[in-house]
Write the structure tokens for this entry.
Amino acid sequence: VSALAPGSVIGILGGGQLGRMLALAAAELGFDAHILTPEADSPASRVAARTIRADYDDAAGLTAFAEAVDVVTTEFENVPAAAAEALIAAGARVAPNARALALAQDRVAEKELFADLGFVTAPFAAVDARADLDTALARIGAPAILKTRRLGYDGKGQARIGKAEDAPAAFAKLSAQPLILEGFCAFERELSIIAARGADGAFAAYDLCENEHAEGILRRTRAPARAPAAVQEKARAMAESLAHALDYVGVFAIEFFLMADGRLIANEMAPRVHNSGHWTADACVASQFEQHVRAVAGWPLASTARLCDAEMINLIGDEADSWRAHAADPNARVHLYGKRKARPGRKMGHVTRLKR
Amino acid sequence: VSALAPGSVIGILGGGQLGRMLALAAAELGFDAHILTPEADSPASRVAARTIRADYDDAAGLTAFAEAVDVVTTEFENVPAAAAEALIAAGARVAPNARALALAQDRVAEKELFADLGFVTAPFAAVDARADLDTALARIGAPAILKTRRLGYDGKGQARIGKAEDAPAAFAKLSAQPLILEGFCAFERELSIIAARGADGAFAAYDLCENEHAEGILRRTRAPARAPAAVQEKARAMAESLAHALDYVGVFAIEFFLMADGRLIANEMAPRVHNSGHWTADACVASQFEQHVRAVAGWPLASTARLCDAEMINLIGDEADSWRAHAADPNARVHLYGKRKARPGRKMGHVTRLKR
């Protein structure tokens, strides 16, 4: 794969904050960014050279997009398989590849690959019918979490099963779609690693970081994570083996649970830049956004070196009103996404506090 | 002046690389950027929410721009006085103010203010007619440099007078416009300081940096400058006194000559972000571009702290073809401006090498 020359066009599926930050990074390297999104006035469109406004299953829109850009990437993993196929059929170079996108859309396939690669995972079982749930619960035990196999994010599409009697209600809440039952991990800490693989097969990872979620939404990331060197090395090795197994090109994240006994449990992967990697834009030589653009453009990967410790706090819903206080803090780096309306649970921006 | 809320519109006069980098910085803070430029497909337009394509003396274009934006700033100092007046008449908040813009457009007025503030300058004299040049040369002596009072940049509009006999040719080359004769400074080093004043009157400066020019064009900036602490403090104090004297809001630069005897000679000021400040985007907590956006938006100034030493190299004309080599250097931060054609002398991008 040859490196795209400056002036080439990076096509981004999705008009949200991740697409926006990717478009900004692409511009710094001399690329034009084109956005495909069904949304009018999207955050990413306002920093992009061009937007094609179309649904992700609009064949004509996808074809026009494929013809206008030099590579297609995405800000979200739930790209319909038919969309990826249409883009490839129209001649587009798509990164990450369709297999990685498909994998991240199916929690069962994802955990099966993790197991194949020797990663420790929570016990899991596919649940396609009510009877499967009883079988799975009998094996895995409660507490457990019933999730949709597809299209879950930010804690959506999940039901907790505290004891066996909760099973009917949980199944009723989520049924009529393929599900997965996952054993509950009484973790000590949530960790994630942001890594990248270049078109040349090179691998690079940022320092392991540590996350706090509330109601399924990331609230805070601390980098580096408080974790022994052996855990950090293990996470890095797991990311490297996953990247090579998928012939992956671009940035991705793996989320882990760190157990009290030191075991590192692979929870899920995201085939894209990731909220828990936003700190890299302020505390590292090169951000995850630049890294992703470099990878999909066929450029050499950038340095992932960290210049200082950092803590990232998401600004969710009305929390974005705190911008004045953050703007006055000399160690706070303020990032706002240009979203017109602050709705509860909506990610409006983030702040990185540098620890110097 | 109240702080503009995220979602407000920062209007930028000019579509070049400085406008582009300002627009990118505005977006990170949640602002929309609008560009006014006569150029089609400008570098800044491709990262901005909207472009009004109009000449800088197009009253209708300026009025439409003033009505669409919440503050107007500029990427270049040669904004026609009539344009600034038209914007203000249409109700726009303009920063930096018209006085600062006018000052930077007149080398004589600029040096007179420098002298009023007690800055050491090269000896200078206004030259409006051929006879003035002889009088000025008799006082200042050769070598000296004859320059246009207005609209000079990157070494354009200048003629060197090595000895008195060169005067007629120099005058013939530049005549039919107001000129200035400046005594030649056999400087040891060229320095510059990038500083900012907020709408609240707060002042902040980045570390003094050191510049190399060739044929009047900046080639290389090293930060921090090799200069004694007393010189650094002096430069900072001069920048602060100039900022307050002009009731300045935004980022500006002062270029200096450092003489072998330690004297710091003020050469000129630029009422905008400056090429010799590009290193701040990679080596400091906040870039000069963010600092300027914060100032003109009425936000508190950002930290100017430097995280590491740096060297910035301009990529001029065909030098931009070296992007592959720079992209492979882990300590090089590559910035390309999206210009479609590399012409000799045209600034196509820059590279910042971090020294860690």
Summary: The two ends of chain B are 40 Å apart (CA to CA). The mean pLDDT of chain B is 96. The first strand of chain B starts at residue 9 and ends at 13.
